[in-house]
Amino acid sequence: MVDDALIEKDYEYIHGLMPDSFRRLFDLIEDICDRLEYKGSFLFDECPDKTTILNLTDKIYSQIGERDKNELAPDSSTPVPLKNFIQSLLLNEILFRRCRFYHKTKRFQ
Predict the structure, then answer these.
(1) Do residues 89 and 72 make contact, with C-beta atoms less than 8 angstroms apart?
(2) SS3 sequence of 70-100
(3) Using CB atoms within 10 A as the burial measure, which of 29, 42, 58, 100 is most buried?
(4) How many Å apart are CA 69 and CA 96, to the nearest integer?
(5) What is the dihedral of CA 90, 92, 96, 99, to 10 degrees?
(6) Which positions ≥6 away from 54 have C-beta within 8 Å?
(7) Structure confidence by residue, pLDDT tens digits, 89-98
(8) Segment 25-49, tens digit of pLDDT
(9) Could you give the CA distance from residue 109 to residue 97 in angstroms, rounded to a whole number?
(10) Which of 15, 35, 32 is nearest to 91 (CA)?
């Protein structure tokens, strides 16, 4: 079994390798997920609601500064729209937290 501390250390290291504009976006996503990580949260629903995810994506997008929007998606020819990118990062963070939650709760049952 992999040590939780090792996973967290690796997670933080990889996070530190991100370019600054992506790290600021990811920090915002982490902060929002931190506030949503509680027992009974939709993060841990068997099937999270797509509308809730889309609304959360819009909330994150609205909180990004114009400078970061320009750095993350400098022109309209970007192959993946910025909101899609944000949603992908958000879902990846939710998946990470769900795995961590299930791993910890399974250990204590």
Answers:
(1) no
(2) HHHCCCCCCCCCHHHHHHHHHHHHHHHHHHH
(3) 29
(4) 25
(5) 110
(6) 87
(7) 999 999 989 9
(8) 999 999 999 999 998 999 999 898 9
(9) 18
(10) 32
